[in-house]
């Protein structure tokens, strides 16, 4: 079990710093020069130097390490890349998000063929290129084979051309508890871990993660806590309506150190606890990312004050162990 300590920050690692570390690590892995494409449609980059330096294998190891220790996965691969990696037939052959504009332009020309004459012209222009993509059957094909050809080009550039890079990455994952084998056997369950298909955090989902630790019914503290929770719910209304710059992902980072629910889930519910307010003292809400606790002030009856305190705490509160 890795123990994480951020230089210059207080606090022992009982889970929170580790989740934060892996969240930042996965962001960093995507900038290592081993991927290309748009943020939510990453493809493996064909880079022989990165391959010889072992960057793909190290990235696989770190990804597996993150998943197994409560961190996120990559959450950026093109869905069809992930499906190819798992030995599955893609649900959709998406050529419009391929990184190379020249490849997209040539596929568009093939797609635009309407007649045999059009197709013969394309074969004359792109036949050798298609053959280099492993589609030598193109010379004996007809207009009815256009879709098959497009699929072949997509598979070539999305997966086959970079198969050595993919093998290194998955091999790195398998060095950590044979995790890639588990992913392949349960590929649909791991889809949100590797691709950007996870639904945005909603109020209902966020609230389902919380457990409110009330004082006994009938006590003065209980009345004050219910008052606070009422303004807390109003604040969540603001988050839901995007009337504040705080998002549910921001709140999740503030409480847990990660912006998404880990693949293996949190070890426990996120607990809402309370602290007493002092006259003349403005004390911000705070959280323990290790014990997964959010602490709110009792007796807070103003929606505006709750929103102001949470905005300041979430956006300006930096570091572990610093309420």
Automatic annotation (TrEMBL):
Q: Where is the active site?
A: 290 (glycyl thioester intermediate)
One GO molecular function term of this record is: ubiquitin protein ligase activity
Residues annotated as domain HECT: 4-323
Which pathway does this chain act in? Protein modification; protein ubiquitination
InterPro entries in the record: E3_ubiq-protein_ligase, HECT_dom, Hect_E3_ubiquitin_ligase
Q: What class of enzyme is it?
A: transferase
Query: Can you say what this protein is called?
Result: HECT-type E3 ubiquitin transferase
Organism of origin: Synaphobranchus kaupii (Kaup's arrowtooth eel)
